[in-house]
């Protein structure tokens, strides 16, 4: 297949399927983006899993366990997408264990309070829904289909986070202060989550040309603000950006830039090192289960 | 004899409600069908609920190629496949005999 006929296929909004011919540029761009997403789902489950023993009630504990299982499930689904694009599961896991995998660096941060667990659902997953909702139109078929299921479940995560925060906001002053303190961090984390400005984004142009990415970082950040500024105010929280303003004439938001370089050193955080150690240990201790159920030494007769 | 990597991939089909068609939803990796079914249940049956799930080893599926896609499109040239359609729906030069009943 020539590059021209592939581009014509994309222009006609035809989805690309795993067995189709595709230029290496497309395969590599898709692989990079989808590995990032798959790694984020897997690594992102760990900081939340750490909080399961500290859930304040059995109800909250069950909700959190269900959420963590969802995230790992999303990782499973996206890992299959990644494998079919040509990266083996072993390589994918090894990259995480070798600390080479790229993912949302917010998952390297320490989650310091129970309010942080609410914020990751309400703001973090809420922001991700904005992005992933547009990716249902992505040109790679298996990924676009996975997004339908994943967004459906992320909506549960958004509402459990909102419910958790709303409950705390109806509590004592100490609880409300805890939420505001947590929000002051998560506001900037949510703003960073959409990535650098369009003018600074290295891969955006290629991804958007291939219709792998549907809306730009700045467009998505704006959509997020449209939806969340009223929600945040309704929740009774104060936004830690005094310059935030809606520009009627442009139809977009003016805001103070988050520090886009803040996560450059996230790998050196003690919280990241602790989780990496946990991942390496559990990969080793659970090896026998993996060998039993997955790939190795399964007789042909089965 | 060990299985190849390709043989450990199982495609997952789900029936949302009894009476609706099975739909392909994704795939899982497993050494054997029982574990594949269990993984598929956890990945695809847990949240949304469904009536039934199938898992099929990918290597057991015989499929068409991308190039064959054109062969499946309904062609105006083959109006004989649609007998009895009203004449106005036909276009000139479609190979149909105009003296035939328009049905």
TrEMBL record, chain A:
<dbReference type="InterPro" id="IPR007814">
    <property type="entry name" value="PaaA_PaaC"/>
</dbReference>
<dbReference type="InterPro" id="IPR052703">
    <property type="entry name" value="Aromatic_CoA_ox/epox"/>
</dbReference>
<dbReference type="InterPro" id="IPR009078">
    <property type="entry name" value="Ferritin-like_SF"/>
</dbReference>
<dbReference type="Pfam" id="PF05138">
    <property type="entry name" value="PaaA_PaaC"/>
</dbReference>
<dbReference type="InterPro" id="IPR011881">
    <property type="entry name" value="PaaA"/>
</dbReference>
<dbReference type="InterPro" id="IPR012347">
    <property type="entry name" value="Ferritin-like"/>
</dbReference>
<dbReference type="GO" id="GO:0005829">
    <property type="term" value="C:cytosol"/>
</dbReference>
<dbReference type="GO" id="GO:0097266">
    <property type="term" value="F:phenylacetyl-CoA 1,2-epoxidase activity"/>
</dbReference>
<dbReference type="GO" id="GO:0010124">
    <property type="term" value="P:phenylacetate catabolic process"/>
</dbReference>
<protein>
    <submittedName>
        <fullName>1,2-phenylacetyl-CoA epoxidase subunit A</fullName>
    </submittedName>
</protein>
Automatic annotation (TrEMBL), chain B:
<feature type="region of interest" description="Disordered">
    <location>
        <begin position="83"/>
        <end position="103"/>
    </location>
</feature>
<dbReference type="Pfam" id="PF06243">
    <property type="entry name" value="PaaB"/>
</dbReference>
<dbReference type="InterPro" id="IPR009359">
    <property type="entry name" value="PaaB"/>
</dbReference>
<dbReference type="InterPro" id="IPR038693">
    <property type="entry name" value="PaaB_sf"/>
</dbReference>
<protein>
    <submittedName>
        <fullName>1,2-phenylacetyl-CoA epoxidase subunit B</fullName>
    </submittedName>
</protein>
């Amino acid at each position: 297949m020539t590059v021209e006929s592939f581009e014509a296929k994309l222009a006609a909004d035809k989805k690309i399927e795993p067995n189709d011919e595709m230029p290496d540029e497309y395969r590599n761009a898709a692989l990079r983006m989808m590995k990032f997403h798959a790694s984020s789902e897997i690594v992102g489950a760990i900081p939340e899993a750490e909080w399961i023993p500290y859930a304040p009630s059995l109800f909250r504990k069950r909700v959190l366990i269900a959420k963590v299982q969802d995230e790992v499930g999303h990782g499973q689904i996206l890992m299959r997408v990644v494998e079919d694009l040509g990266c083996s599961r072993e390589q994918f896991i090894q990259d995480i264990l070798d600390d080479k995998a790229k993912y949302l660096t917010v998952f390297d941060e320490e989650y310091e309070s129970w309010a942080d667990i609410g914020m990751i659902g309400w703001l973090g997953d809420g922001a991700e829904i904005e992005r992933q909702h547009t990716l249902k139109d992505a040109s790679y078929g298996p990924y676009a289909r996975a997004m339908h299921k994943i967004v459906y479940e992320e909506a549960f995560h958004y509402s459990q986070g909102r419910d958790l925060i709303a409950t705390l906001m109806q509590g004592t002053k100490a609880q409300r202060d805890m939420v505001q303190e947590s929000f002051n961090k998560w506001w900037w984390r949510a703003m960073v989550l959409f990535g650098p400005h369009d003018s600074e984004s290295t891969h955006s142009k290629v991804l958007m040309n291939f219709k792998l990415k549907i809306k730009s970082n700045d467009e998505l950040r704006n959509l997020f603000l449209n939806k969340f500024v009223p929600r945040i105010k309704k929740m009774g929280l104060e936004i830690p950006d005094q310059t935030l303003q809606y520009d009627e004439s442009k139809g977009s938001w003016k805001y103070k830039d988050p520090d886009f370089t803040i996560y450059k050193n996230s790998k050196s955080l003690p919280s990241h090192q602790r989780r990496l150690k946990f991942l390496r240990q559990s990969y080793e201790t659970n090896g026998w289960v993996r060998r039993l159920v997955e790939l190795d030494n399964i007789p042909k007769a089965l | 004899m060990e299985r190849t990597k390709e043989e450990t991939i199982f495609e997952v089909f789900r029936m949302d409600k009894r009476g609706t068609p099975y739909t392909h939803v994704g795939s899982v990796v497993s050494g054997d069908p029982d574990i594949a079914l269990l993984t598929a249940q956890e990945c695809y049956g847990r949240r949304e609920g469904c009536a039934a799930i199938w898992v099929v080893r990918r290597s057991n599926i015989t499929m068409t190629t991308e190039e064959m896609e054109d062969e499946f499109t309904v062609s105006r040239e083959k109006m004989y496949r649609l007998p009895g359609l009203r004449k106005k729906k036909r276009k000139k030069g479609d190979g149909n005999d105009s003296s035939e009943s328009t049905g």
